[in-house]
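Hi support team,

I'm opening this ticket because the web form for multi-chain structure prediction keeps timing out on my end. I have pasted the exact lines I submitted so you can reproduce it. The total is 1003 residues across two entries, so I didn't expect it to be a heavy job. Is there a limit I'm missing, or should I split the entries? Thanks in advance, R.K.
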Amino acid sequence: MKLLANLILTASIIVGALAASTAYIVPLSLPDEQLVGLTINQPAGRVAQPDGSYKPLVPDHTTLTAEHIQALRDHRYDAQGVEREVRFVTVNDFDPSRWIGRWLFLAAMGGLVLGASLMRTASKRELARAGPAAATTAAAAVTPEESLETIISIVESLRRDLPGLPDDHAREHAVLERIGEVQSTHAPAFIDARPRLIARLGLGGYAELMDRFAAGERQINRAWSAAADRAMYESTPALDAAAALLAEARDRLNPQR
Amino acid sequence: MPDAPHTPTDPDPAGAPAGARKYREVTIAAIVFGVVVGAIMNAAITYAGLKIGFTIVGSSIAAVLGFGVLRGVLRKGSILEVNIAQTIGSAVNTPNSGVIFTIPVLLLLGSQYHFKFGDERFWLLTAACVAGAILGGAFIIPLRKQMLDVERLRFPSAVAVGAILKSPGAGPKKSIVLLVGILLSMLIYLPVALPGIKRVAPLEELDSLVAREKITESDAARTRLLNEWMSSESAPAGVVALGRLVHEKKTAADEADRAAAAAALTQASRPEHLTDAAAEAVYLAAAGEADWSSLRSRPAGWALKPLPGYSDLNWRIAGKRDDAGALTYESDRNRNGKPDLLLTDETIDVGRFLGLPPQMLLMFAITPLSLGAGYLTGRVGLLVLSGGVLAYIVLTPVAHAMGWLPANVTAVPHLAPEFGRLTFNRPIGIGLLLGGALAGIVASTPAMRQAFKSIIAAGRTGRASDELGFKVIGVAAIAAVVLLFLALEFIAEDSTAGLLGGLNPHIKHLIIALIGAAWIWFAGIIIAQCTGMTDWSPISGMALVTVVLVMVLAGKDDVVGAVTIGAALCVAITCAADMMADLKTGYLVGGSPKRQQTVELIFTGIGPVISIATILLIAQVNLKTTGVPMGDGTPTTAPQAQALQAVIIGVQGGDMPYALYGFGTVLGILLGLGSFAGLGVLVGLSMYLPIIYILTYGLGCLINMFVTKVKGRTWAEEWGVPLAAGLIVGEAILALGVNSVVLLTG
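Hello R.K., no limit was hit. The queue was backed up. Here is the completed structure from your submission:
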């Protein structure tokens, strides 16, 4: 269904944009009374001059008269060896009654609404079919709960292990290594679960969850930067702050817990 | 994962003295460095923007310089201190892109709009731009949580800056990859940038330069004439007389004398190939005011020889000839008797290589920066590419085939892509962008509400908040609205036209200031979203809509008022996007948003002052040397401001395609009804930007997808991000370097 929705959306946006682009294009096949008095804002026609240059048959900003219209209808010009006629002019006033793309545009609007509805339905069905325990990423077949727990456990283990390490050098290395793993693997896995989490918590609930998770993630990043700067006196409190914030995030993810 | 720990003998880069261990973040060194670097970049990029038409993002340059100075020279900068330094540097630099798009319009539109150092108009315009800078930053702060925490917008350049900042802890291998990216980028971009540096051409090379399409035949002919007169130390009387008129026009004491000289000049006959500048140089030499050797110079119009670039590889399309033996239009579109170049200094025309029709443009800009940004954006960037494909591969060719384009374009079909961009793709694209942003805002309302609640709750409970509270933001916003109102009170022209024409002028100005402020908020969101999702900033489109909006409200004649609000808005939205990008970088390195927001709001006001002062300095030099302050005939053509000038003239002449904007908006809203509300933003953005950059960007997205597929996501992130970051940084640094050379050598 998603493929069909995408096809409808693509076709509709193409048709809609094409139809819109004709808003100021007026066919010369319209009766004279609809054309006379219109002001064109692009030159019309192309006449070769004796010096090899070209001039328009009717310059832009000309208000059309019956004579102009007839001359344009009779006019032929050379386009790289092909004889062409002037079938349209561009005017500076929009009028729905002479808009050649109006029905196409309406059809495109309908197509966009239909395509969007199909897309939403398909996304909802996909999420429902997958179930709450389904994998979130192909690479790491874990649920958001598992990702978050892994992050929390890494942070907790770091906080536990750091005091026992022999020196700051070892502590810095431990933070860079283990937080580096959180940054490259576990945090992206949690973030990838966004559609599933929104489906479960609603956008407001997801925002509430991410408010805490992101604050915790920032503290994790701070701990990493401070360790890289050999400033464990900043890295350790940042890990403490991260642990508290991630625990809050876990509470928001699982209120019954 | 780090590749190696620090050695125990390393000095403590965090610079913490024993007993007073405070992690360095906001320091005097970071502030001074940020302001100085930001100011230098601002002036240099303002000049470059007026000359070449686009600006360079300064954050990555500030970050690299920050490392060099704070960590390398001072030996004590921490990652977060360098982050603050780059935040301030970019805050001071960024407003230039808003200023150069708008303010020079006043110097292009005629002497009644000109302004000078220290006059009332200068101060009011500056005040409006400073207000815009503060307003833009302040308005976007409450959306940080929604955009960065909830939406997780990517901000490719901010990720690149983050990669630079994190390089000390990321291990030597990743630092090497980053460095390789920078060098590779410079290597690729060097032949693009070098031809920007030009020297006076030796006489004996003129034929060769014409043959290689480095100069025109007219340039060569003029140079030979100048050489002839220089050698004989005399010139025909007609040329000297013409030069005298040019000089009189330039140095006329008042408007009447200037007009008289201009009128005489239009009547005067001109020898073929002779420019006004060349004639004036001849007059000055003949009058003894300059040496005859001065004719051999850039200002006199002597041909210039660019440094080598890609076009010197001379890769041309295979020349097909017609029955008469002449090259066909397909082989020689510019009719200079040579098959066209497939590889120019800046682009590679894949469409022509593949034999696509001329109305279908498939040309890639040679820009590692866009390639890197595309890589960092990844799969989402393909949606951006789709808009470019829609505009240039579908809409324009169909319009050409259906006969909707005027005859002068249909007959010369390689003009169709640019014609289509300017006449329908751009307005429809801007409309799509507005509609998409509107749909995105509506869809994000619950997340925004939650983010606001979080900030308010932090303020009420007294809990240490991550960011500036609503009180500070509110005070900044009110002050900025008052500044906008005052600027309008003193600068706007009395007009009874426009939607608000019948109102008391003070009420009218207050309403415009309030609508302007609201519009800044909306446009700031659009720009931040675009930059966040793609790294592209549709500032020109937003400026265009703003100026039109103000002219509709205040009347078509209130050009100064429209440009004032337009300038404030442009500055505001660039600052909004910059604030969000800096906060993203800060997030990646664990910086404090509150501290970043504070320094950004304090120092961003310096930016417009430097930009406007630079513009006026250039304008005064131009006035002295060419007789006009800005635009054609000067070294600073201000292409972006000329685009805005065309729009202002279009509004005044009733030529604005309002319906196209409206239909684009409808399509953007409807496109956002599906599962991705901001889809219209991505599609619309690339419909109105030049496709050559979008294609290169799209290539970067495809490379990311390919690498992810082959090597896995972790590998693609771990090694691809530093390389892509290097590509972004390398081009930015080289471009700034080359522009500095151009600036210094004139």
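A quick check on our side: Chain A touches chain B through 90 residues (CB under 8 Å). Let us know if the file doesn't open in your viewer.
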